[in-house]
Amino acid sequence: MKISKYKNAKPFAIVALMTCYLAGTAFAQAPPVQSDAMNGISLKDPAYQNFWNKWRPIVSRYRVDVNEIRVTYANDVAMKTIEAGKTEFPKGAMFGKVAWRAEPDPLFPNSLMPSQLHRMQVMSRDAERYADTRGWGYGIFTPNGKADMGDHIPMAKACAACHDYAAGKGFVFLGEMDVNTAMLKSQQPSTATPRVLTPEEVKLVSSIHMGTGKVKVSPVVRKNVPENIRRYLPVGSPSVQRLGQEIAQFAFVGTLSEMTPLLLNAAQVAKQPAAFWSNDQKHWVMVSKDEGIEACKKPDSKDGASFRILRSSPPPRQMAMIGIQLMESFVCL
After folding, report:
1. Beta strands in the chain (DSSP E)
2. pLDDT, tens digit, 9 for 90 and up, residues 199-231
3. pLDDT tens digits, residue range 246-255?
4. Where are the domain boundaries for CATH 3.50.70.20 in the chain?
5. Is this model's pTM higher than 0.70 or not?
6. The architecture CATH gives domain 37-179
């Protein structure tokens, strides 16, 4: 067993450890070969090739959990639907996303700027072809333009399950970046109210709102927590708050990143561990308070809140010679 330190400066992890349990000595094998396509979508296809140069950018987002600056683009078919104020996207509507790792601008550190290209993603509308994923086909690509090495079918279903939160918007996470429309709206009284989570929502069987959908929260007593997760549950914790059961069937490694901020919030409010695990228990992440983290102790002798994050996930099928990976990190608040 080898333990090695690594740095993960964004968004809030200060200390991190990764332990890899190796199955045999298969590292001598040839490196895995990536395919060009995922679910019939390829960035070599003229329909999607260089979409970032041909399609219209419609929204930019910052993903806190994975420290990504994301820019979403829409093709002409999708744009016509958006401009018409509709959410029923026809066959041929396509969206592309380019995600960059964010880092402080060395010339102006208060500003985050794109640094390393992290991934590209594509959504393609074809209700008949992609009936199993709400009529949308999903493609996830690494910076070299090749398809992600994960298991493509459950990955696409995981994407669809997440996009269920945007069911009221045609399963697309849309945002408004039209200046003319925004200027008109700014002359009208704002009706927006910030969404604040209440302790009851996390302590009891409740939900955390995410877009138009909900992530359910359910307490699970210690004895009912799967054994491979229970062994890491802090001593003295009688139960754990389980989140995201509605997407547990289609979870993959990316789901763990998406769930971590919600688990952190749940652990803070409920004052007990919070966890997410897939139905097959192969993918899981747990957040629990840990008072003994030296890196989180403040100079004024007043300890800040500190949380331990454990994540476990199998490697992509092309790298099956590597066993289950367990990653440990700490968050200081």
Report:
1. 2-5, 13-22, 37-38, 41-42, 56-63, 68-74, 94-105, 108-125, 136-141, 206-210, 213-221, 239-243, 274-277, 284-289, 306-313, 322-332
2. 443 333 233 333 334 567 889 999 999 999 999
3. 788 878 777 8
4. 37-179
5. no
6. 3-Layer(bba) Sandwich (3.50)
